[in-house]
Amino acid sequence: MNTIFENSENRELxxxxxxxxxxxxxxxxxxxxxxxxxxxxxxxxxxxxxSSITKELYPEIAQKHKTSPDKVERGIRHAVQSSIIQxxxxxxxxxxxxxxxxxxxxxxxxxxxxxSADGLRYKLRSR
Length: 127
Description:
Helix content: 55-70%
Number of helices: 6
Oligomer: single chain
Low-confidence stretches: none
Shape: globular
């Protein structure tokens, strides 16, 4: 495990992910919010896991939250779509400091998790 994300830095990472999700219009009232925090954190620590989201990431998130992988996928999809409907997903571009996402464009769960993780990983390493 990467020591950059241990202990107090782990709490800081949770806070940064939470702030990002809230800026994107994804609030704690959505089940996908908690699943995204877990998934984005896992993707930051092990980026290669995003490529096998249905076989690795969803089952592990489901296990941590005592639910099924299908419910994790559905919760994340609902949260991401909620952000798009609100017109807030463009906040990802601010985090990434580039035009990775066009307003109204459909974004998949794995794209959302990967983009969020990449942006936050870059910010954490450049401090």
